[in-house]
Amino acid sequence: MYCLQCLLPVLLIPKPTNPALMETHVMFIVLYLIGFFLERKPCTICSLVFLTAVSLICYSGVGNCIFWGSCEGHHCENG
């Protein structure tokens, strides 16, 4: 479970309040996770625990996920 020491703080990084910075935040998180998994090669249990935590956080509410923001308070386009 030593691998989780570097993975769990990723869940604590606050999302930016400015919607323009959301793409940069998502790119940082994705690149960090790809680099971490390629460099450190965490064990299967740690990977499953982290992915379960991310999926539960994303499933608990639309604005809670670390990979996308919510459309509350401003106009969102349907792309």
Word description of this protein:
49% of the residues lie in helices and 0% in strands. It is an all-alpha fold and 79 residues long.
How are the secondary structure elements laid out?
Elements: H1 4-7, H2 22-39, H3 44-60
Give a short overview.
The chain is built from three helices and no strands. Helices cover 49% and strands 0% of the residues.
How far from one another are the termini? 40 Å
Overall tally of structural domains: 1
Count of DSSP H/I helices: 3
Roughly how many Å is the radius of gyration? 14 Å
Mean pLDDT: 79
Helix-strand string = HHH
Helix/strand-derived category reads mainly alpha
Strand content: under 5%
Low-confidence stretches are: none
Which overall shape is indicated by the principal axes computed on the Cα atoms? globular
The helix fraction, in percent, is 40-55%
For the largest beta-sheet, the strand count, sense and barrel status come to: none
- How many runs of DSSP E, i.e. beta strands? 0
Please give a handful of descriptors for the protein shown.
Bladder cancer-associated protein, 79 residues, mainly alpha
